[in-house]
Design brief:
5-stranded mixed sheet; about 60% helix; binds zinc ion; 2 domains; Rhopdopsin 7-helix transmembrane proteins; alpha+beta
Amino acid sequence: MLSRMSVQDGSTLVKLRKQVRKRCAGGYKRYNGLLGLLKRRRHEEEYEGEAVEVVTKAPMEYLEHSDSFCDGGTLVCSSRSSTYGSTLTLLEDECAETSDVKLEVVEEVDVKVVVREFHQAQANELGRERHLHYYQLPFPWRENRFIIHGYRFYDSHYKSLLSIVNWYGWHNETANIWTHLGGALYVLWLAVYDFPRTSVWESEQVPMVAKCIVYVFLAAALKCMLASVFGHTFNGTCCLALRSKFACVDYSGITMLITASILTTEFVTMYNYPWSLRFYLAVSTVLGIFGVIMNWSPKFDRPEARPLRIKFFILLAAMGGLSFMQLGLLGGWKYASWLMAPVTHKSLVWYLLGVAFYGSFVPERFRTDIVVDKRIPTEQELSTSLEVVTRHKHVHFRPEPTAGARTDLWSLWWVDYVGCSHSWWHLFVVLGVVGHYHAIIDMFANRWGI
Ligand SMILES: [Zn+2]
């Protein structure tokens, strides 16, 4: 836990004590304790206590130290550091000598908040002028340590919107936006032009409900692509809370797409078994709805909830697998495999390939134009240690990325702008969607013998 104090023009230290007592009863104790502690510990080398953060509007350049930082008028130093005592001594002296300065407990904050907000003010300022590199981003914005250049940090959604057409220069989401924008247009074309001309649509043997389910799938695919375009366009914002919301929009789209893919598969395999069909459709739909809610819940957004998220997708996929097994047992394995073959050949293979790129950071992990950090601070370190923004500030917030050995085409410098793993993931999702659409058409044609 840190204490945040501020020095402002206005009154003397004595006056301040009274004001603090009056204004913030909660902070008063801490403030008094802090001063007492300062007096006692000023010259002691070791202090095993709480860290102290000091916010100051007075000129405090002299407080810069290797294990402290000044960030937009905020000074943070660890109580374990020698700066701790001297910093507060200087503050006290300043308050005592200058009658127009007051010292005030503003609020209590924790290490996690300080680390999370570190460098935000500078990033805001830089973001108005240009795109940032990885080491200029505050920690919560850092998601892929292999992507170095071209980060947007815009202060308006209008700028994000214009970034679809690279109004402020090519950035590292351009390819991600356009892969799914192209995908969305293609899905729209499938829905309005291609499907009404297929033999499945024209055949009277295929029930109307089956035709409708193709549209349910195409609608989910379109929603997935548009949600992704929306998410990747507006995540260029400098507002962290909104940025996480845009990520939720993106995840929800993918969850709905997967649910719709499973539903269509279950529909074909279980069509002859109405009660089983209802059961599978109902359970998968409920799971899908649960998945979307889960995406929006901050409780499930945390890294600790990752195993639960993975279990959820396995369960959803298992429903599709289960319907296949039931068909195998009831209708024969040969028939079941023959009916399901288009799904494995045309859609599953693309989805899996996409996931492989998504999870492996290929190809950007092989870039050699920049020396990429071997490891990044863990969630645990980011929420418990100030060292990432003090002692190791020069590593995590270096002015320029460290240049690597090569700069030619094979150094993969271009992954920041085109062809990163996420763009490949997008491309394979599009191929998976188109493949699944054709797989449904094939399965329906096989199922109803047209
Ligand atoms: Zn994406």
